[in-house]
Amino acid sequence: MSSPKMLLIRRARIILPDGELMVGDVLTRDRQIVEVAPEISQTALATEVDAEGLTLLPGVIDPQVHFREPGLEHKEDLFTASCACAKGGVTTFLEMPNTRPLTTTQQALDDKLERASHKSLVNYGFFIGATAENLPDLLLAKPTPGIKIFMGSMHGQLLVDGETALEAIFAKGDRLIAVHAEDQARINQRRQEFANIHHDPAVHSQIQDDQAALLATQLALKLSQKYQRRLHILHMSTALEADLLRQEKPSWVTAEVTPQHLLLNTSAYKTIGTLAQMNPPLRSPHDNEVLWQALRDGVIDFIATDHAPHTLEEKAQEYPNSPSGMPGVETSLALMLTAAMQGKCTVAQVVNWMSKAVAVAYGIPNKGAIAPGYDADLVLVDLNTYRPVRREELLTKCHWSPFEGWNLTGWAKTTIVGGEIVYDKGQVNTQVRGQALTFL
Length: 440
Hints:
nine-stranded mixed β-sheet; six-stranded parallel β-sheet; 14 helices; 20 strands
């Protein structure tokens, strides 16, 4: 019988499940945390990690990413994306269905799970995508965190924008439904209105405006309330939506926001052009502030990146031929911890928004906290050192970031997945493999 893999993290500033800070030790055995204490006796079999001066957090769970495999591997693949995750302190991800082929059947879901088992350095789960015709798959496919519905900003089979088709999905089953909430009819109308100035990427935020977002969120909320159906609103971007949820948010509804919708706004088009283009688009500084307040107040529940890379060559095309989307898994934790250091929130809130609340919302057992019995998915961060985002240091295959040049703290020093060190001091251990998630 082989000896258990044991890791002893010494003298870390540990963020405990209640948000309190304790300087102490954490012992892991195989894939689990077995002890958290001010001091743990020397264990001969354990590999020791000296964490003095560093802060130990639960690993980030990123609940919305687009890792492009299969079919679009020139942008990203499960290996490169999971390397970027490890570097960013992300130990678990939930990936979206708009790959080629689309993840709309059990067979396509099984294919992704098989690929990830061989290629992903971190833990993984995959959404099943809704079409107007695949209701049986939506009811039976497993394991999956939920059903993804594109109500807008999509074409082909994954666009489900008619209320009748949407209602058929909400009416049957009890699986979580996650919506990309933009109203396609409104977007189509606005495209006609702005046809004469459509080469300016800044017009993207006017075409897919806050009304398009609000209309779709209102419809999703109405259907969720009608059928008492578990609903999650992806990448909320507008003050209007936040105000709607503040007034009317049933206990079974959750929402997320991206770092870019908190930290970037329409002024970014002037400096980075189409690199600022995403769906839903960047909004105004007022939207930034309202979203921050909604996050702090619990109206918005957690953070996701919507990591959606495209090559620089693709992004260099003239708008509207330039694709929407930006990478994010490498910078999200450092961005949010930098915001915490600036007084926008606390480190404990970041832990909740990026780990604990995600695990609770998606029913992912034993993740999101540093306590005995929880999975040993951990990240040690340095909150004392600032370093800029540099294109040449990024591990995402697209090799760019909308936050290039931003000076951030809280970068991951060591990332641990299932009790194994997957990233340490700039080096990725490509031999580590994550596990497929289960969902309660």
